[in-house]
Amino acid sequence: MRRFRRLLLISLGFLVLLVALGTGGLFIYQSSLDSDIVRLPAALPTSKEEEKQRPQPKPGLGETWLLVGTDRRSEAATTGDDAKAELWQPGSQRTDTIMLAHLSEDRKHAAVVSIPRDSWVSIPGRGHAKINAAFSWGGPALLIRTIETLTGVRVDHYAAIDFKGFAAAVDAVDGVDVEVAKTVRDTNTGTTWTAGRHHLDGEQALLFVRQRYNLPGGDFGRIKRQQALLKALSDRVLSAGTLANPVKVDALLRAITKATTVDDGVSLETLRTRLVDLAGLDSSDYFTMPTKGTGMEGEQSVVYLDARKTRALSEAIKKDRAREYVERTGPGNAVDTVH
Questions:
Q1: Does position 275 have pLDDT exceeding 90, yes or no?
Q2: How far is residue 137's CA from residue 157's CA, in Å, rounded to a whole number?
Q3: How far apart are CA 75 and CA 81, in angstroms?
Q4: Can you tell me which family this protein belongs to (predicted)?
Q5: Helix (H) or strand (E) holding 241
Q6: Pick the residue with more confidence: 288 or 17?
Q7: Is the pLDDT of residue 75 over 80?
Q8: Is the pLDDT score of 74 beyond 50?
Q9: pLDDT for position 92
Q10: How far apart are CA 118 and CA 219, in angstroms?
Q11: Rounded to whole angstroms, how far apart are CA atoms 13 and 17?
Q12: Residues 6 or more apart in contact with residue 243 via CB below 8 angstroms
């Protein structure tokens, strides 16, 4: 019933827009949104040789996206139509957030797997290094090749958002709610998060997901915060207050299309369809790629992935069996309440 209600609200929201815009207005509106989307022609590996080395596509096993957040804290946006700084500059940027998001073939389940940015992995043509160095050295294409080599999961689409774009998306839905388990102070910014529920605007959401100092687990704690914000934003997007309000629907679509950069296989219709798919989900699960500890490689502090457990989780994603994986191993990260 809840799934049906959300789908109905999306339909009503778009219907109101259709009536308000009319045929000619709708065409202009769609063209305007589409022109806001920045597409990278070489985001996915494109050469014949690279394609031979990639996991081959297998119909009927769902769809997997690589979601990336950049840690370039410039005053200028680096993604979308508002971008004034380049998304990727060789050697100058690394990824702060790396997530594999898998949507099941029946569109009833989503699995989101965060890969710690300091994971020590094999990068094609470069040897071993932190996984976020792949983006710095070779942009999205090298990062995708690295992740596909690590997991055996084929990446179907790529989407990147920077911190400023994320804040805009949060503001477009009038903020999001998060639950903090225990009062914690960010020793870097001086911000104190008291135990209980917080309603965050875009700038506050950035402070929340950027904190790593004084968090249980450091970067692992921040990963859970990132996932909590993603879930909170999804819940807000799919709420009645957003979907039944054409003004909010418009603001949301504008924020998304202006704040993200995608591969050139992603159309406006792709994004609209995925929004409908998200509304129809029965469940979603969040994971951190399994690790076996931290250590030092030279002067670098790194995270070591657990090869066996990483392979098991990756196989579940690859074969579209994430739900069975959860039934077998137990739930992933608890993100309704975080530290």
A1: no
A2: 20
A3: 15
A4: Belongs to the LytR/CpsA/Psr (LCP) family.
A5: helix 240-243
A6: 288
A7: no
A8: no
A9: 53
A10: 9
A11: 6
A12: 6, 9, 10, 12, 13, 237, 249, 279
What tokens appear for 182 in the block? 């225990």
Residue 216 confidence (pLDDT) above 80: yes
pLDDT in tens, 82-104: 544 555 555 556 688 999 999 99
**Cα–chain-centroid distance for residue 338?**
18
Burial label for 166, CB within 10 Å (0-12, 13-18, 19+), is: buried
Query: Is the pLDDT reported for residue 105 higher than 90?
Result: yes
What pLDDT score was predicted for residue 198?
A: 97
DSSP β-bridge partners for residue 179: 197
Task: Output the average pLDDT for the chain.
Answer: 85
Domain 2-329 matching CATH 3.40.630.190: the answer reads: yes
Q: What residues contact residue 320 under an 8 Å CB cut-off, 6+ apart? A: 60, 61, 62, 102, 104, 105
Q: Give the Cα separation of 299 and 76 in Å (integer).
A: 31
Sorted by where each begins, the domain ranges of the chain are: 2-329
Question: For the chain, what's the residue count?
Answer: 339
Tokens of 124: 């094609």
Question: How far, in Å, are 46, 170, 179, 331 from residue 98 at the CA level?
Answer: 21, 19, 23, 20
Q: What is the mean pLDDT of residues 105-123?
A: 97
Q: Which of 339, 317, 82 is nearest to 186 (CA)?
A: 339
Cα dist from 160 to 43, 72, 331, whole Å: 10, 12, 27
Query: What distance in Å separates the CA atoms of residue 100 and residue 148, rounded to the nearest whole number?
Result: 11
159 strand-pairing partners: 67, 262
Residue 151 contacts residue 324 (beta carbons within 8 Å)? no
pLDDT in tens, 198-210: 999 999 999 999 9
Going along the chain, which residue ranges are E strands?
38-40, 63-70, 95-103, 109-114, 120-123, 127-130, 157-161, 176-180, 184-185, 192-193, 196-200, 260-263, 283-288, 291-297, 300-305
Report the DSSP pairing between strands 283-288 and 109-114.
Answer: parallel
The rounded distance, in Å, linking the Cα atoms of 243 and 240 is 5
